[in-house]
Write a structure and sequence with these properties.
The chain is α/β, with parallel strands linked by helices and about 240 residues long. Helices cover about 40% and strands about 20% of the residues. It has seven helices and seven strands. Strands 3-2-1-4-5-6-7 form a seven-stranded parallel sheet, sandwiched between helices. The longest helix has 22 residues. The two termini are about 15 Å apart. The relative contact order is 0.15.
Length: about 240
């Protein structure tokens, strides 16, 4: 049966802009969700908006993946005997505007840490814990394939994390775990009211699509693939 009801899913960045929409969609569909977020404020905002029943299926970790303390907390939680059916990597933040050559060195270091290292560490910790037949989904964006002037550092990170997924897919090709990318190929607006065209996305729409993907028990054909999602109505294989 194609459903996430009763499944255990972990989301890195599950209280962030897009991650919030994924978390809500999975909880609404009956999944048990563990989120990791470095923002206590975002976790609180998410928790306060959920029903009591949804809260009973949500666990949160306030930590930054890629730090010694954060990795230890996450590792202990992932090894507590829970059967994990899927993981979603929804990490990273947008860089300030301006050419790459003008980026502040301290900001650049923070962006490197907050994006690439966090992706690598989450994959190292979560992927081996996913059960047979499970899925590891990396959320990526428009910068993966195309340079973005004045925000080009994000194209660098998107391309790097995309290659990270490709390497992992090759290394896990003989497992029964599907590792793939859902690449959002247009802008994401915070609410439906702010959508400037039918082609832009909301976090809720992304959450619904991720829920559909995780609920599909027949997913091995997606292993190693990049599902480029250009329009909300586009069907996924």
């Amino acid at each position: 049966m194609n459903t996430v009801q009763g499944k255990n899913i972990i989301i890195a960045g599950g209280a962030g802009f897009v991650g919030d929409g994924i978390t809500r969609a999975l909880l609404s569909a009956g999944a048990h969700v563990l989120i990791v977020s470095c923002s206590d404020q975002c976790i609180k905002k998410l928790d306060e908006s959920l029903s009591a029943e949804q809260k009973s299926r949500l666990n949160t970790i306030h930590a930054r993946i890629g730090t010694d303390d954060g990795d230890k907390i996450l590792s202990n939680r992932l090894n507590d005997g829970t059967l994990w059916h899927g993981a979603v990597a929804c990490l990273g933040k947008w860089a300030s505007q301006g050419p790459i050559v003008d980026l502040n060195p301290n900001e650049l270091k923070d962006l490197i840490f907050g994006n690439l290292i966090s992706h690598i560490r989450f994959m190292q910790l979560a992927l081996p814990r996913i059960s047979d037949g499970g899925q590891y989904i990396q959320i990526n964006g428009i910068g993966m394939d195309k340079p973005i002037p004045n925000a080009g550092i994000m194209s660098v990170f998107d391309a790097a994390t995309h290659m990270l997924k490709n390497v992992a897919a090759e290394e896990w090709q003989y497992s029964n775990i599907s590792v793939y990318t859902l690449a959002i190929q247009n802008h994401v607006m915070s609410t439906s009211a702010e959508k400037d065209s039918a082609s832009t996305f909301t976090p809720e729409q992304i959450g619904q699509r991720v829920t559909e993907l995780l609920g599909n028990a027949h997913c091995t054909h997606r292993h190693g693939r990049t599902l480029r999602w250009a329009h909300p109505w586009q069907q996924m294989p």
